[in-house]
Write a structure and sequence with these properties.
globular, alpha/beta
Length: 227
């Protein structure tokens, strides 16, 4: 990995050992706020080994985190072509439509890879290109889910730097409303029905989230969903 990338990571809240700083995780993965930088916590498990490769990365002006993983991380960690890989991404934002296309191309070239994606927020959730991109990943077998509290807890215990971290002061504690809203919106995307999530800002630029269900099809689909 390039030295410049490592220096950028450290100054952006990722340690030399590949852990995310506590304050960076708190700031970046809070679904009730809309931070611009995208972070990815990732795991790679090989079928030939019990060990996990667990690290962090983030997007830059030149490259989204997903593309960095595909073009750099995976290429560095891959082994024999017959080995199967289980890969999990814990992302502060869901992939955009363009990244979804490159993820599809990657998975077609690597049929021995199983990918699971957890997201804290959905990126520009009303843009049809992004909605189609997420559906296209689901259609080729990628599991896409909104991070729930047990997943946050796992990421906290696994990826957050241990220095000054108090296990008994676990963060977060208040995310259920936003988890529900993003889960319902993800269901509307994957089921190809109109968006149900509205996000606006008040006079202080604080995000305001609301659920908007206008027709019976949405009600039936969202009622049957189990976020």
């Amino acid at each position: 990995m390039a030295a410049g990338w490592n220096r950028d990571h450290v100054c952006r809240g990722i340690t030399d050992g590949g852990k995310i700083l506590q304050e960076t995780f708190i700031d970046s993965y809070d679904p009730s706020v809309l931070r611009r930088v995208q972070y990815m916590l990732y795991e790679i498990k090989w079928s030939t080994s019990k060990r996990l490769w667990q690290r962090c990365c983030h997007s830059t002006r030149m490259e989204h985190a997903e593309i960095h993983f595909i073009e750099d991380v995976f290429q560095e960690q891959r082994s024999h072509p017959s080995v199967h890989y289980s890969i999990t991404w814990y992302m502060s934002w869901s992939p955009c439509g363009d990244c979804c296309k490159q993820i599809r191309d990657f998975l077609k070239e690597q049929p021995n890879v199983n990918l699971v994606i957890y997201v804290a927020r959905i990126y520009w959730h009303k843009e049809e290109n992004n909605r189609q991109g997420l559906r296209s990943l689901m259609n080729i077998g990628v599991s896409i889910q909104v991070m729930d509290l047990p997943v946050y807890s796992y990421c906290w215990r696994t990826f957050v730097n241990d220095e000054d971290k108090d296990e008994y002061d676990y963060w977060p504690r208040h995310f259920a409303p936003w988890i529900m809203l993003y889960s319902l919106e993800l269901q509307s995307i994957l089921q190809n029905i109109p968006s149900c999530l509205e996000i606006s800002t008040d006079e202080n630029q604080t995000p305001i989230f609301s659920l908007c269900v206008e027709d019976e099809e949405q009600k039936r689909a969202l009622t049957s969903a189990n976020p």
